[in-house]
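WARN retry 2 of 3 for item q-0093 after timeout on previous attempt; input resubmitted unchanged.
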Amino acid sequence: MTIWNPNPDIIPIALPTPFVVGPVNCFLVKGDPLTLVDTGLQSDESYQALTSQLAEHGYSVSDIEAVLLTHAHVDHIGLLARVVEESGAKTYAHVSTASQLERYEEHEERTHSFILQTLREFGTPEAIIQATAEARNTFRGMAAPVSVDYRVEHGGTAMKYTVRYVPGHSSSDTLFVDEAKRCAFSGDHLLKRISPNPLMRRPRQGQPRSKSLVEFQKSLRETRELDLEVCYPGHGDPFGEHRNVIDNLLARQEKRTEKIREILRQGPMTPHQVCEAHFPDIDAQFYYLGMSLAIGHLEVLEERGLATQETRDGVLHYRLNAL
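OK item q-0093 returned
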């Protein structure tokens, strides 16, 4: 099958992952410097796939001169340390990605503890919390700490790319936009056939927990205003008509928000009860993903003044407001 790609100097490289989302995309950008966008996760299988696909185009890892990172999830940053060690490539990442990557193990431990404690506050049974902990433990060893050479900010530049900080799916999502070619490396911020999950995440120290879906929708609306011909995503094929993709995603999210609102009509509920009602057959290993969606839509309702949260005996509850 031919993949639509109007820029022959951009070579998609699909690397294996053990996750349900399937392969993750890296992109080799020909030119000076020879640039790799994202790296895949840290595993021998992923590394072998990277080296073999580079070789198909006449390159090796040692030829890479620069690396751009779209966000700090393991399937996108895991091989960075090995790539940099072999190539000496300069690395570029938004400050949020860089800070997580440079203290990767500490960040993951704190995030792990935060998620488990937050699930307790959401009324989640201990058996499900334990299953979530075990599922997250499978991420261990898929990345390693590494320093970033150039920490970039929203509105700044990374080589020829304009940097757009678009938090939502993660706290570190970044677009790298080539305005001359009207293309962007969109990471997991924007995918054509998959709805990115705005994941529940640990806040900055001293700050309240981020409302991931509220942030995500704001970022999507900002991305919609960009003049783009093609997006190169973290999963799936390159695609055009990004405004249609965003409109369809926002419409799907709106339908889910209304479903969550209908669930709340039964009366005050914990986030766990809402998640259980909306995803009655969810496997425990995917509970964190389901809960991220459930709490995200509850927070959208709260942001719109349609719902209110309250804490009872240390457990969060949401209720609809009287209209």
